[in-house]
């Protein structure tokens, strides 16, 4: 039998946490043959709710679940973890300045970076979900210098999956027949959902989505804005932000990272830029990646047209500004 993997979920008493922990305990994230021990962290005002989640995990009697740690102590939460999914953060409240929200999150991610660096298992893989996801991940990277930078990522898989979903709805085909969309850049409304390289599996083989949709107006307009603004549309409809889709996408992100992407398929992940596609190095930026043996690699050599170039640069500029704002909060 396999040794259990320890998976940390921060903000575990929140909405996404509530959807995510049962998925992990059922093997959706790491496979149905992989036992897990869940570590759940939240802050003291949520301690009672967190304990309630722990009670429900016990009550669900998940066969793969070999233990649950529920705590408000970051050191206890981080000790020995192999995977860390960082969902906890400070939400933007009405009337708050961007800088104030950034400052709260910078403080959280700086201190949790230290706890992870000192106490997590060697080679711990980190996924930051909490917004501003790219910049929180960057701060975590900066303050956990002994964790390899390739181990620190942020979630743009939800946006990627939303893009697949929009193409599938438009063409009235199963979503599993669509692949290789790309989310470039920031997990924000400046992200660039790109279908230029996406393909559809048909009875006559794989066809470019662009050729089949053949409606450039939709592809360059409504498709992009729908994906960019989907988060806001969900909040409007549900009066709560996306939780089941965020949790499911977080499982997809970790599963593909750990177990590998299928041959010929890439996915989007926010990773530390090495300057690929002339994206400034030193930003956490969403790229198309393939994964093998627990490592991701940026897909190289995709042609980028002029329209796309502008969009790649625009979202990079926003991330550069966010980075500067985050640094200004450190002093
Ligand atoms: P929520 O407000 O329901 O839950 C957040 C939880 O984090 C709360 O239980 C809160 O007590 C906890 N928390 C706050 N500070 C903490 C700290 N220092 N340490 C540990 N826990 C802490 O929010 P929800 O809906 O679960 O969303 C969580 C985050 O995920 C938000 O920042 C949201 O913007 C982000 N998000 C990101 C997505 C992505 O695709 N990257 C998609 C959807 C949401």
* Overall SS class: alpha/beta
Instruction: State the CATH architecture of the largest domain.
Output: Alpha-Beta Complex
- CATH topology of the largest domain: the name is L-2-Hydroxyisocaproate Dehydrogenase, Chain A, domain 2
Give the radius of gyration: 19 Å
Strand content: 15-25%
CATH domain class name of the largest domain: Alpha Beta
Bound chemical compounds: 1,4-dihydronicotinamide adenine dinucleotide
Low-confidence stretches: none
Query: Helix and strand succession?
Result: EHEHEHEHEHEHEEEEEHHHHHEEEH
Number of strands: 14
| Residues in helix, % | 40-55%
Number of helices: 12
The average pLDDT is 97
How is the biggest beta sheet arranged?
A: 6 strands, parallel
CATH superfamily of the largest domain: Lactate dehydrogenase/glycoside hydrolase, family 4, C-terminal
**How are strands sequenced across the largest beta sheet?**
3-2-1-4-5-6
């Amino acid at each position: 039998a396999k040794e259990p993997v320890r998976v940390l979920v921060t903000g575990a008493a929140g909405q996404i946490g509530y959807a995510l922990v049962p998925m992990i305990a059922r093997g959706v994230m790491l496979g149905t043959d992989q036992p897990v021990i869940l570590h759940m962290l939240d802050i003291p005002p949520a301690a009672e709710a967190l304990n309630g989640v722990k009670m429900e995990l016990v009550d669900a009697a998940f066969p793969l679940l070999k233990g649950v740690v529920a705590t408000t102590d970051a050191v206890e939460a981080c000790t020995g973890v192999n995977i860390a999914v960082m969902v906890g953060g400070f939400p933007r409240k009405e009337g708050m300045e961007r800088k104030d929200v950034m400052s709260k999150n910078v403080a959280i991610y700086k201190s949790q970076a230290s706890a992870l660096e000192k106490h997590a298992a060697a080679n711990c893989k980190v996924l930051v979900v909490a917004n501003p996801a790219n910049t929180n991940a960057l701060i975590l990277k900066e303050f956990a210098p002994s964790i390899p930078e390739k181990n620190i990522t942020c979630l743009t898989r939800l946006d990627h999956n939303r893009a697949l979903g929009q193409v599938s709805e438009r063409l009235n085909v199963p979503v599993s027949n669509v692949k290789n969309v790309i989310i470039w850049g920031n997990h924000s409304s400046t992200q660039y959902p790109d279908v230029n390289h996406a393909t559809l599996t048909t009875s006559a083989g794989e066809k470019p989505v662009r050729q089949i949709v053949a409606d450039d107006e939709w592809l360059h307009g409504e498709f992009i804005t729908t994906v960019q603004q989907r988060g806001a549309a969900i909040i409007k409809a549900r009066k709560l932000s996306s939780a089941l889709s965020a949790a499911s996408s977080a499982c997809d992100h970790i599963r593909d990272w750990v177990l590998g992407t299928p041959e010929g398929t890439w996915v989007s992940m926010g990773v530390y830029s090495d300057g690929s596609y002339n994206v400034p190095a030193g930003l956490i930026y969403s790229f198309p990646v393939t994964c093998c043996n627990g490592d991701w690699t940026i897909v190289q050599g995709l042609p980028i047209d002029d329209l796309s170039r502008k969009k790649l640069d625009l979202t990079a500029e926003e991330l550069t500004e966010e980075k500067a704002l985050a640094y200004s909060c450190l002093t």
